[in-house]
Write a structure and sequence with these properties.
This protein is α/β, with parallel strands linked by helices. The chain has one domain: RbsD-like domain (RbsD-like fold, 3-Layer(aba) Sandwich), CATH 3.40.1650.10. Helices cover about 35% and strands about 15% of the residues. The protein has five helices and seven strands; from the N terminus they run E-H-E-H-E-H-E-H-E-H-E-E. Strand 4, helix 4 and strand 5 form a beta-alpha-beta unit. Helix 3 runs parallel beside helix 4. The longest helix has 14 residues. It is globular, with a radius of gyration of 14 Å. The relative contact order is 0.31.
Length: about 150
């Protein structure tokens, strides 16, 4: 059974969520579009539905709550366009804007092959299924630990 968050719930959660998880490290979060097989992919069954929220906004909401891992070279990945791995879709650019604005570390989305993305998403702490309609609106975020001073 999927957990469902409304934007009202997410706004309310931003006030209490970080203090409850101080010092906890969440390994990774997959944020996926509406075409991604979230339920079939999430091995641990943690699928969160964000109805009415596009993928870049979901990236923004996650980064407002949990910082990126600052000890890895690339904490952010995007699903590559099949047949053109260097192509950036508008959804990739929009997510990069959210990362640039909300991440504590300067980083760039790194492309990942579609099947490698499926494998990594299956190992994520949670799969957040957005209402993103644009193709390739799928992202992996390697999360860091919450500081007690956050």
């Amino acid at each position: 059974m999927a957990e469902s968050w409304s934007s009202k719930t997410v706004r309310k959660s931003t006030r209490t969520f970080p203090s409850q998880l101080t010092g906890v490290k969440i390994p990774g979060i997959a944020i996926v579009d509406s075409n991604f097989p979230a339920y079939a992919t999430a091995r641990n069954g943690r699928v969160v539905e964000l109805a009415g929220v596009d993928a870049p906004t979901a990236v923004e909401l996650v980064l407002k709550l949990i910082p990126l891992d600052t000890f890895v070279e690339s904490p952010c990945f995007r699903m590559e366009v099949v047949g053109n791995k260097d192509r950036w879709e508008s959804v990739h650019s929009d997510a990069q804007v959210a990362i640039d604005h909300y991440a504590d570390v300067r980083t760039r989305l790194v492309g990942m092959d579609r099947f490698a993305f499926y494998d990594r998403a299956a190992k994520a702490f949670a799969v957040i299924r957005s209402n993103e309609q644009r193709l390739y609106g799928c992202f992996l975020l390697k999360m860091g630990a919450l500081s007690p001073h956050a």
